[in-house]
Here is the input.
Amino acid sequence: MNVKTIAVEQRPHRSARGLISRKPTLTAVVLSLFASVGVFATCAILYIISSEFSIFLNHVGAAEFFFGTRWEPFMEPRSFGILPLLAGTMWIVVISTIFAVPVGVMIGAYLHHFCGRKRGLWLKPSLEILAAIPTVVYGFVAVTLITPVMKRWLPETEIFNALSAGLVVGFMILPMISTLVHDALIEIPKRVREGAFALGAYPNEVFFGVEIRAIRARIFAAVVLSLSRAFGETMAVTLAAGAHPNLTWNPLESIQTITSYIVQASMGDAPHGTIINSSIYAASGVLFFVTLMLNLLAYTWIKRQKIGISQL
Amino acid sequence: MTSLRHRRAQLFRFLTWSAAIFGLLLIVAIFGYLIQQGMAHLDGAFFENYASRIPAKAGIKAALAGTLYVMALTMFIAVPIGVGTAIFFEEYLRPSKLKGLLELNISNLAGVPSIIFGVLGLSFFVRFLGWERSIISGSLTLAILLLPVIVIATRSALTEVPRTIKESAYALGATKEQMIWYHLAPNALPGICSGIIIALGRAIGESAPLIMVGALSFVAYTPESVWDSFTVLPVQIFNWASRPQPEFQAVAASAILVLLALVIIFTALTTLIRQKFAKKKANY
Here is the structure.
């Protein structure tokens, strides 16, 4: 929310008649119908997931679902403990974030401090190509390029493994972090930075001593957004991380994430009414809930920070 | 002590520089590798052939046609709804709790993983409405996925139109609809277009939701109506890439090159439009 909208909000309403400013015209009615599509989508997602989720929980039991350590939906005895899928997803999230956050922050610092305006004009969009590459392409690169290279150094690497999948997801979210950090750095008032330089600080001292502190909530929000992106990443992970629900401490082993289970189960053409079909919705429910929480967290922090920076 | 500080500053400079170089090298490495892998297969026949069990005969005719068909239909649905939603938000809704909620809803939809939209499409279009695994189901699913992207881009384009233009239109007695149609929309058009192209670039590489609504990977015909089953490039790539034979990996790389070419054309178009827009804005 920028300053302008805040100013508008503080102005008293001219009419108390309602949301739409005058008698609704045909255009207003049509446009409001268009605007309700988004609301409909959210409601449909919530309804579909929650109704199937409750059917699933009736069959399986909440205790087994949330605390079970075995996810074995296709073979008897079936078992639906989400923990192995959650652990697989966490591997992807952790690896990609450990890679992307430091590198992304460093790129943001470079764009802000050391590269001239001209170089920045082509460097920033070029780096954003990394975010434009379709995820299925990253999956291909992970399986056919990164895993073989890794095998040379770590021979015990499995063909499908969490590490190479996590790395390519890290490549994908790298420009998101660097752009968010750079945008936040730009918003710091110039005098803050120049004051520090005037006191004789080096760029690294300005960056770590002053700027990082000013934008730490934004950096936190960028990290949370990237966590959410990595959590929901699907195709790269389906191709590169394997399809083996695996509660493991070794990132070189094959794992399965929540998203790749959803793909696997839906490709098997599970008919309506089977437990496999409901398990798709159960997995989606967990995925939706976690990403929703992460996104809400990030948006609140971005909002809070924007107000914070305007008070500097 | 000064020299230690100086060395630290130099180290910082070097580290940030190498991070940026590393990012660029990643792009060069990925593209170089894909070109080296995929060039061999990329000939006229590759665009003429359908998918095949024999790698040498495999082509992307059905996938390319499916992609173009699905993209056209998706944009036909998503653009009016997305742009309309944005205009409604900016021009018709007064600031209120409801508006805040609607905004939160859109920004939240933008963060929902794409596969969740696939689950929605599968349950609603494919099963509930009984539209089967058809182009219309796929396009509607993608349209909902693109909706927040288009809404957010259009809204920022609309807010960038100078207030003076809106106010002079009103001062001359224009109605709200006249103001939007003759002044606001034409002035925001470049921004809206670049937003639409960004959305298109995202949709063209999207495969997870389309796999959910049942894009097939073995289609030996080009689609004729919106009720036909279909495949798209990313799904075809996924299928080839997940096969064990190395020959199919090479075919996948060739298809990836075609997909990347499309994505890069869209990205370049956005940059061009933005630059033109920036020049025009400077004239005010």
Remarks:
- Chain A is about 75% helix and 0% strand.
- Residues 93-310 of chain A form a domain with the MetI-like fold fold (CATH 1.10.3720.10).
